[in-house]
Amino acid sequence: MKTIVLKTVNELIAWRKGLAPGARVGFVPTMGALHSGHASLLERARSENDVVVLSIFVNPTQFNQASDLEKYPRTLKADLETAEAAGVDAVFVPKDSAELYPEGYRYRVIETELSKELCGAHRPGHFDGVLTVVLKLFGLVRARRAYFGEKDFQQLSLIRGMAHAFFLETEVVGCPTVRETDGLAMSSRNLRLSPAEREVAPKLHAAMTSLADLAAARRAIEDAGFRIDYLEDRVQPTGEIRRFVAATLGEIRLIDNIALPESENFAIGGPV
Predict the structure, then answer these.
(1) pLDDT at 272
(2) What is the pLDDT of residue 264?
(3) Which of 38, 122, 126, 164 is the catalytic position?
(4) Domains of the chain, start order
């Protein structure tokens, strides 16, 4: 079956109403510039559901700088080809931001703790925009499951928290980070790295995984030419310890996180 492209909220609502009662809908919300990481989410959604919906929307409310929004890669033709190849049933591509923000962002979702830390401390209001658009999309798609990559682990945690807090029926499914062969976490922003920066970028992940001491990891990352926003080890509610980093190379801000091994060589450390 050919993938259907829906450009308005009304088209999406009408299409959703036409599905068979009880159809299991899997949803992958994205900002486009799809890569193999996104493809893995679509593959997981396809394997666990009757119907798969993909959204492509560069959400303006989660950007702190207008220039970053302008430069965000847009590859719609290639994205639709990826969707078709993955067996996506419908792609929601809002024709403009007013489709999802008819009131001009007067109403929004605000979380007051985790959203202020890590990326939130350096990008004020970012997660307000993320949570607001995800809540809107969840309401429209009414999926049984929605799939997110663990590369954006803070985002994943906040979306799970929102779903629980607002009694949403959509299950939020986290999927492992997909990496390039050299360890760089796949990201749409990687398209904006210069060839020279692309050679350096994998050193971020290498330092995170090879150096137990946070101070040593920081030195290695900075020596490679990155400007660090944060580098922290944090204990998760599950007891798992994860290492989080955000660092800028040239003009491109990269984030990553890993689960630390249960080893005495990786002592828990705070921010450095």
Answers:
(1) 42
(2) 47
(3) 38
(4) 4-175 (3.40.50.620), 188-259 (3.30.1300.10)
